[in-house]
Every structure is written in C-alpha cells, then in structure tokens.
Amino acid sequence: MYSEFFDDKPVSRLIDEGIEALEHTIREQLKAQDEFFLDMKKKPTQTPTVRWVFHGFAGIDLLTINDQQMLLLNIKDRGPL
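Above: the chain's sequence. Below: its structure in token form.
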C-alpha cells in the first residue's frame, strides 16, 4: 500500500515533503488559534519555519519521576509579544 507511494521517491524528497507538511500544520494552527511565535528579531509571526520552531524548543528537557510526575526543565521566557 505505502510502498507504491515511496518506491520512486528519493529519501531527501520524502524528508522535504515531511518538513513542508509540518510547517504547514504549524502555521495553520497558529492562525486558527490566533497565536504567534517570535522570529529571530523577536517580532511576532504566524509563519515561522520549522527550523526556527525547533530551535525555540532546543534545550528543553522532560524529567519523569517514578513514571508518574513529569517536569519541564530549562524553559526560558521569550518575552512578551
């Protein structure tokens, strides 16, 4: 079923399509929820790149204690919009 879709496409093309789809979803959800993401100049945008969104989450850790309690660590305030 899926092999017909993937057989003729190089891996780099599949990765590009996945990134494009993820970027589209992020932008669509930001607009639907009237939310913004700060760009490199700290200006609000509803059209960030996937790379910039991932960069914004770099360094955040999830600490799980006894398989019950979860804590987010290293979250930095990005400032007001």
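The chain has one domain: 3-73.
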